[in-house]
């Protein structure tokens, strides 16, 4: 079924792009001249060596960043002042993934930003080259293997799983069937004490009006299987703490997903004199980071109960509140932490009676900005200001507990820079190893894109899959 045949589809997704991917079996002729369809007006795009295989692009164009495992050749490339991720794939796959990413972006879902799809590439000798999908590098993000190559907390695996569960719920709420959920297809950003997850690979995905329970459960089950395998691979490489149970962590995704899905979609039943519980339900959803657009309320057939179902529109409740107060656009858990510090500042300065907008302006000038200005230049591309501020607050609390008295903010920042921040540097040997491992997994064989049996699942055998199978 074509997306244009679905009138209920969000109009933002329907009008997202002019690129319409052809059927993968169409075998239409490749264009004879270079064609770039771009969502960016960066003129430097036209100066890149499109006539060369991506693996042969000159070193001076490449950005030295850790790459995740991929079946295809992937490189990070400097394009003017931007850094773009380039992935070399077949034309049909590139166009389809660009189209899907554009739709997901228009729906304001957490994905990498699609920049362009480049087709009609040829060598100087006229030999055809594969297409390239261009996305914007997600600043401060890392693939999961790079995170484990650093000195992180023992519960890192569980925090990554929690972030992936939130991402999966958000995508499913929007009607996106992923089809290949794994840690390898996600980029992670530190978000206070947690992580935020962003979809980076949508090759196998499909956007529908609404997913069936069968589609969602298959996505979750596949995710569990993939994650257990990835964690076992980390364990074999001595990157996973010895006390981590890979199967238990995989099961955690299923549990966290179902718990969050239930909180966001279940219908509550209240007695008519318990309407205060509706506000309690909304507050709970806000605490989870989701905004409620509408509440659907109706009485039961016997008239003795009120049935309430929320219409959740998006995550980012704390983010939007902080953005309105300060102009800071940060991740949800970071926003909660900054709002908490803003409240503490308001109390400590005896200003509870003043407008919060005015207090927030002073907090920015007197607390937040002086702190983040102390980030050393060499770390400014590695840690977000909001994350730096959060970690300094944590470090300040640790120092105060150890000293038995309060510690000045400036002293806490200096101590954090000297003793904690260096852990953000990835060991050069580990860095080289990660990228060599990423390249070793490249297949780039066109037959791998068109093999319907590569995961052992046949949609024709699943009645719930009829909506999305092709």
Written description of the protein model:
- The chain is 40% helix and 15% strand.
- The chain is α+β, with helices and mostly antiparallel strands and 470 residues long.
- Strand 7 (186-191) and strand 8 (194-199) form a beta hairpin.
- Helix 5 runs antiparallel to helix 6 and helix 9 (332-348) crosses helix 11.
- The longest helix has 24 residues, at 213-236.
- The termini are close together.
How is the topology of this model organized?
Elements: H1 11-14, E1 35-38, E2 73-79, E3 82-89, H2 91-106, E4 113-119, E5 131-136, H3 144-148, H4 156-173, E6 176-177, E7 186-191, E8 194-199, E9 206-207, H5 213-236, H6 246-265, E10 268-270, H7 276-287, E11 290-299, E12 306-315, H8 317-326, H9 332-348, H10 356-372, H11 385-403, H12 409-419, H13 428-440
Helix pairs in contact: 4-6, 5-6, 8-9, 9-11, 11-12
